[in-house]
Amino acid sequence: MASAACASCAKSPPEVKLKHCVQCPEVKYCGRPCQTAHWPIHRAVCNSQTGSNARSAGNNNNNARSAGNTNARSGATATGGSSSASAGLSPPKGLEQGIAKPFTHLDKGTWLHDRPPKDVYALLVDAYRLRVEDMYNLEGEIEPGSLYGGAPNGLAGFRRFLARVAARPGLLPPWWNADKKKECEDLGMDAGQWHDLRCAVEKSDIIEHYGDGQFPMQLRMFAEAVYGGPAPGGFSGTAMRSMMMAMEQGGMGDMQASSFDISSMLKR
């Protein structure tokens, strides 16, 4: 049964006008400040209402759409996953084609180069989605016009992110142009696949989709290069990237990458 009062401040009509949560119609707020303040409490409930359907369709942590639409997301990008896994490429699944030595590419600024266009689009969407999630969880900041601020999708913020990427010389592949940018935005707004700007993601979602415990680290390091500063939480990935590069080059003996998951070190 829907509440007749704001879930945060308990005010009710006619004193205030209520609007419901995008995902949970029974939960209402008198305005964005109350919705933002109540989100840490409501988040678990909001996720649990759609969690089972979302995961069965390959879409984890769906914070932005009704459960009735999640079944359309079973077509998550997985072409080429088995070949990437057998070749030892990263990620082993989730993209058309993985790459070798991803941290070396991150250091050189060529992480998005020599990939199929759809893979580039997917990675840009997911780098943005994880960055927005990290900013909310680690800095308490809400991206303007994002799901966390009550918007139905993250397209506006994603366009700002793409502008930042384009402003960093060499990060985008040489074939990138206005038409490719539009294709990238269209993929992010396609409800029939996993890289959806209507849905939020967490670290665990990224690991599950790509099958690589280090992939959140790659996305975060790429976003760090885009924004030109420390990652959310104040951590610089420079030292960790150098360590991972040394491991890719065989310079750290038998040490395993899983021992150096920056995400677990930061408890995020």
UniProtKB/TrEMBL annotation:
<dbReference type="InterPro" id="IPR002893">
    <property type="entry name" value="Znf_MYND"/>
</dbReference>
<protein>
    <submittedName>
        <fullName>MYND domain protein, putative</fullName>
    </submittedName>
</protein>
<feature type="compositionally biased region" description="Low complexity">
    <location>
        <begin position="51"/>
        <end position="88"/>
    </location>
</feature>
<dbReference type="Pfam" id="PF01753">
    <property type="entry name" value="zf-MYND"/>
</dbReference>
<keyword id="KW-0862">Zinc</keyword>
<keyword id="KW-0479">Metal-binding</keyword>
<keyword id="KW-0863">Zinc-finger</keyword>
<dbReference type="GO" id="GO:0008270">
    <property type="term" value="F:zinc ion binding"/>
</dbReference>
<feature type="domain" description="MYND-type">
    <location>
        <begin position="6"/>
        <end position="46"/>
    </location>
</feature>
<feature type="region of interest" description="Disordered">
    <location>
        <begin position="51"/>
        <end position="99"/>
    </location>
</feature>
